[in-house]
Structures are given as structure tokens and as C-alpha cells.
Write a structure and sequence with these properties.
Layout: E1 7-18, E2 21-32, E3 36-40, H1 47-54, E4 62-67, E5 70-71, H2 76-82, E6 83-86, H3 98-108, H4 114-124, H5 140-152, E7 158-162, H6 170-185, E8 189-193, H7 197-201, E9 205-210, E10 213-218, H8 220-227, E11 230-235, H9 239-246, E12 254-258, E13 261-266, H10 269-281, E14 285-289, H11 293-302
Helix pairs in contact: 3-4
The structure holds adenosine-5'-diphosphate and magnesium ion (MG).
Magnesium ion binds next to helix 1.
């Protein structure tokens, strides 16, 4: 990475269309060194497309900026050398062993001390026991660790991880996130896409995209605060029937089932408080709660204007 840049990713106005449909619309993003930055949003929102533009696999139609201090439009080859990109479907050779996969990738990167590097990364990722196994026989969690090992082998400064934990069990997800934070602690910057709210909460900062547009960004707390959404948890009998009724009430802009309670949210304090008072009269237990990221994201997705 060039020494002079304050931000590992610093891009402005990034735009991309496919077949005249804008899939990434005028997106600005700044990410600092050592930050774990979460990228969230419904399927088809342009997350993968954006990652591919950052690492030089795809050229934006508009916009400019730097990644690792290199110009994203003119220095794509330099960027590729310093990035580790874990694609949405892990790109591993199923009929090669763990060792062979890593050897193959190291040859692509023309790593000189291959054997030593592979040994080190295998130890680091706890893959020793599996190194002679064919990838197709590994569990999802181990495939994921191998995929991470593969994108770390050339010593990148930036990791782009595209839904790295999709379909992986909770224990492996937790271990994976520990690993990510350890890497960030060593100064590696991580941009990661996810659909899991617990993972969103583990990111230093977040951006939320819907259908190509960046709807909000900041720390988890900032994102919740900026949304300015008031939420109550309602519990009592027959909540499903209640939720149908509540949909007709003015002021309740969103109803989400959360376990044994309904979360109702809205932005107009007076209106929603009037609803809550009525519910209390009808013997429902109503508790004001802090809106969580999921409340906010669902709200924003349904109303892109905010
Ligand atoms: N190479 C491509 N050609 C045409 N359309 C594409 C291509 N890649 C992605 N898209 C479209 O762009 C939109 C955004 O896709 P994607 O970036 O994969 O979103 P996400 O990763 O957020 O699910 C989708 O509508 C998708 O169908
Ligand atoms: Mg994607």
C-alpha cells in the first residue's frame, strides 16, 4: 500500500449499469486502515458489483477514487496484488486437497517461498489435520477457513469478503469473526458483506445499500440514531391477529415479529404514542425499546426515501 493515503478505500460517485439498469448508483465510501466495514442490503442491491469494481475486476461507468492508494480506474493490476477477495461461492478446486489448492493459488501469485507460506497459513488457520483431504469432503466451516487462507496467502492489506459466512454454522461463524478481528488488529482492512445482524453489530462501521443506493452508513449506534425511529415491544395474547389490526392504525409504520413480541415502529412520536396508549388500555404489555439494526434496515428498505 502507498504510504500517503489516509483511507484504504476512498471512492466517490461510483456508478455501474447493466443493460441500462443502474445497479450501483453514485456511491461514496471511505474506509480506514484496520477497520472492519460491513456492507449490508437485500439481494440484488449491488454489493458484489461494488466489490468487483473496487478490486479492478469490473470498470465503473462513473466515479473515481483510490483503493490502497492506487487509482481504481488506472492502477487495477497493483490493486489486485494487494487485495484478498473471497467470492460469494468460495472459489476452491473441489477435487484438489487443501494443500494442493493453496499451492495452486501461491503459484498464481508467483510466491517465491511457497512451501513456507503455505505451512504458516495452514497452522494459522488450524488446517493441519485436513491438509491432505479433498476439498469436496470438507464441511462448510472448513471450506470457509480454507477460502480465507487462500485469500491471505499473498499477504494482502485489504480483504474483500463477500458473504463469507453464508450457510456456515454459528460456531464456525463466531470463530471466523474472531479471525477477522485479529487480522484487523494487525492492520489489515476488511470490507465484508453479510445478511446477519449479529455480524453487522460486530463491524466497526456499516453501510446499508438497497437497490444500488447507499441509504445510511456509520457505526451501528449512529445508524440507529440517524434513523430516528421509535420502537415499542408489544406482548400479550393473539399477537398475529393484533398485527393485522395494527397495520390499519395511523402512526405504526412497521410491524416486525420478534420472538414472543411484536416490534412496532414509527417516526411520528405523537401518533405512535396514541396507538400505544390504546394498546395499554386493551391490556397489552407495551415497552419502549431501542430500535435495533434490523428494525432500521427493514424500515429503510421499505421506504428508500427515509
Ligand atoms: N454481469 C452482470 N450482467 C448483468 N446484470 C448483472 C451482472 N452482475 C450483476 N447484475 C445485476 O446487478 C444487480 C446487483 O447484483 P449484485 O451486485 O450481485 O447484488 P448483491 O451482491 O447485493 O446481491 C442485480 O440485479 C444483478 O442481477
Ligand atoms: Mg452478492
Amino acid at each position: 500500500m502507498k504510504k500517503s493515503c489516509n483511507f484504504v478505500i476512498d471512492v466517490k460517485g461510483i456508478t455501474k449499469s447493466f443493460d441500462k439498469k443502474i445497479v450501483v448508483n453514485n456511491l461514496d465510501l471511505k474506509v480506514k486502515k484496520g477497520e472492519v466495514y460491513g456492507f449490508l442490503g437485500p439481494n440484488g442491491s449491488g454489493k458484489t458489483t461494488f466489490l468487483r469494481m473496487l478490486c479492478g475486476l469490473l470498470t465503473p461507468d462513473g466515479g473515481s477514487g483510490t483503493c490502497l492508494g492506487y487509482d481504481i480506474l488506472h492502477e487495477q493490476e497493483k490493486i489486485k496484488n494487494e487485495i484478498g477477495y473471497m467470492t460469494q461461492k468460495f472459489s476452491l478446486y473441489q477435487d484438489l486437497t487443501v494443500d494442493e489448492n493453496l499451492d495452486f493459488i501461491s503459484r498464481i501469485y508467483r510466491i517465491t517461498n511457497r512451501k513456507e507460506r503455505i505451512k504458516r497459513i495452514i497452522t494459522r488457520m488450524g488446517l493441519e489435520e485436513y491438509k491432505k483431504q479433498l476439498v469436496k469432503n470438507l464441511s462448510g466451516g472448513w471450506k470457509q477457513r480454507l477460502a480465507l487462507a487462500a485469500c491471505l496467502i499473498h499477504g494482502p492489506n485489504l480483504l474483500l469478503l463477500d458473504e463469507p459466512t453464508a450457510g456456515v454454522d454459528p460456531r464456525s461463524r463466531r470463530d471466523f469473526w474472531e479471525e477477522i478481528h485479529q487480522l484487523a488488529g494487525q492492520g489489515i482492512t476488511v470490507l465484508v458483506t453479510t445478511h446477519y445482524m449479529d455480524e453487522a453489530e460486530r463491524c466497526h462501521r456499516l453501510a446499508y445499500l438497497a437497490y444500488g443506493n447507499l441509504l445510511t452508513s456509520g457505526t451501528g449506534d449512529e445508524v440507529v440514531r440517524h434513523a430516528n425511529l421509535m420502537t415499542w415491544a408489544i406482548s400479550g395474547d393473539n399477537l398475529y391477529a393484533l398485527s393485522v389490526q395494527l397495520k390499519k392504525m395511523k402512526g405504526i409504520e412497521q410491524i416486525v415479529v420478534f420472538g414472543s413480541a411484536l416490534h412496532i415502529s414509527g417516526k411520528d412520536g405523537a401518533l405512535i404514542e396514541a396507538c400505544v396508549q390504546k394498546l395499554v388500555k386493551d391490556n397489552y404489555k407495551c415497552e419502549r425499546v431501542l430500535s435495533n439494526l434490523e428494525d432500521v434496515f427493514i424500515y429503510l428498505t421499505d421506504r428508500p426515501g427515509g
